[in-house]
Write a structure and sequence with these properties.
- This protein has 466 residues and is of the alpha/beta class.
- It has 16 helices and 20 strands.
- The strands form 3 sheets. It has a 9-stranded mixed beta sheet with strand order 7-8-6-9-10-11-12-13-14, with helices on both faces.
- Helix 6 packs across helix 10 and helix 6 packs across helix 11.
- It starts with 13 loop residues before the first strand and ends with a helix.
Amino acid sequence: MTADADAFQVRGRRVVVVGAARSGIAAAELAARRGADVTLSEARQTFNDVDRLAAEGVHLELGGHRLETFASADLIVASPGVPLEQPVFTAARARGTEIIGELEFAWRFLRGRVIAITGTKGKSTTTTLIGRMLTAAGRTALVGGNIGTPLSAQVDQSTSETVHVVETSSFQLETTTTFHPWIAVWLNFAADHLDRHPSVDAYAAAKARIFANQRESDWAVLNADDPEVLRRARGSAPRQVLFSLEGFAGDGFVVDDAAIVRRTGTDVEPVIPLAAVELTGRHMLNNVLAAAAATHIAGVPPHAMVDALRGFHGLPHVMEPAGHIGGVRFVNDSKATNVEAARRSIESFARGVVAIVGGRYKGGDFGDLREALSSRGRAVIAIGEAAGRVRQALEGTVPVVQAASMAEAVAHGYAAARPDGVVLLAPACSSFDWFRDYAERGEVFKEEVRRLVERSGAKGAKEHEQ
């Protein structure tokens, strides 16, 4: 389904965009190109794109949000990272001003169809894979949303032949009102973002909005192994296609012996040989199953799926090999920002795991890592604001060492992992106590590993000379 791109107009309207991160900047530029009188309201005093936006005719309100600006707005577009409980939003709601998010705003201009992906873990990998599979089949696919390019920055490229592959977060979905994916994919669900959502139920309800405007002609791709995903999708309009890593008994996409197959009644159609999957960790197959199901609906043949997987080893900061010293490996899974994601990362290894866990706590129970660590773990290195919580939850299962910096964490991890273990950055937390984002955290981890490798090599060479 596509939006009625000609019906929605902002020309001559006063549009206030809130938040000057990537999505907000893209929304402000889109609104200005479409003839709106645009104000970008930002809590910071400055940011990198000030001059460019001013040159495009966007009014800039820096250093805080002003009630009078919001009071004069015909439409308010909020960036995903902006909390909606602020007084300026409350006053605008009381006046009946429409408040939507950047995802909803961009959707209203699109001419192409949308495949939307949500879930607690695996969104970026699955979104990327779907885009690669569509492209391998010769389709015009634009990948974006919560990953890479904001949807607002893709609007001008959108045609009736375009398939927009959109990663959607709970923050983006909670502000949608008409957003209507052709294919909606829900990968999994676990408690997350409780520093922002008031409850687990509110977080789940925001995710479930991915189905809210779908019709009987649309599709929902669902994880058959996740009861909460199935429960939240129950009663929604779209046709359902299930996928399962655990081998459920129904029809859908499953792992059967050495292949991903599509099972329908008594028929089994081979789709992707497991030998074609070059991703680390069995849980990554969950993402491949979901991508195969979604692109099969979109008409992608199996050979194009295999072509898309060839040479794809994953995204940066997602189970990313970061180096080794002798028999000790280092793996960067900085994007594992919740407990469920960290658990799956740990379970990707048979033994010898030294997990670096911690950061800014955003909900969940670190105790849920005990079972995985008891059989595979060698130690935990606790970091960041949540280090005390990590120690309290996991001490007694494995030794827990606290580190005051990433350099210290890597050094302690290496010492605990010798001679043949895995030092795994799987924080189960956000990064905002020590770092700008998960990507910076992952880059710092890799840099500290590189330095340790260099020091170990120099030390080894010196000992050899002696």
